[in-house]
């Protein structure tokens, strides 16, 4: 097993169920991600990360590798043109853990692990800038109801 | 608690801890031993600094077998950017725009 490329952690004042929805459901992702995620989220199914245009142009595509609602979701991750090139297909895992020891909960620890990125690739660059902003946006949206 | 922004600033207030973050930015996911090489500090001091950074949420850890790997977690830094930097940037941009308007004599 190769070591992950990036591991991002954020603490969100919301239940796991809310964080799960915040990651996957259009009413949330439209607001902080400017994209929608399309899939039935079953293991083996495909998933797409699409723009908000009429054609729903996919920017990222992949397969669902693991789906344990609302604890863990693992997806493959590639640009549509690279979907069949194993070197350019990376892997994203979302892990949601309840933080029971903190007051005024519920709190959820969201860990995002991105692995198998091609070293020096454009994708590696863009995810390293993108994820912290997205995780922060998700937190703001779930905690305040707006972005 | 990690949520507290005071923790982030406190963790960043030490040059050695900032250096550790730079080292992880250059090469993410390092073990304690790897981080100790090239540091002018005892293993114990590095451990303490890492502990504080982890507590502040600036470092995330992953266990790989028996090895603990340290990753830079820039999410709290992004919160600082949102809270403390972005708004000043906006003010500066507005000042530039106002200056341009004034010089060019156009209606704002």
TrEMBL record, chain A:
Lineage of origin: Bacteria, Candidatus Eiseniibacteriota
Domain Activator of Hsp90 ATPase homologue 1/2-like C-terminal stretches: 14-143
One Pfam family of this chain: AHSA1
Protein's UniProt name: SRPBCC family protein
Domain of life: Bacteria
UniProt source species: Eiseniibacteriota bacterium
Family: Belongs to the AHA1 family.
Signal peptide residue numbers: none
Entries under InterPro entries matching the protein: ASHA1/2-like_C, START-like_dom_sf
TrEMBL record, chain B:
Domain of life where this protein originates: Bacteria
HTH arsR-type domain mapped to chain residues: 1-92
An example molecular function term from Gene Ontology annotations: DNA-binding transcription factor activity
Alphabetized Pfam families for the sequence: HTH_20
InterPro entries: ArsR-like_HTH, HTH_ArsR_DNA-bd_dom, WH-like_DNA-bd_sf, WH_DNA-bd_sf
Protein name: Helix-turn-helix transcriptional regulator
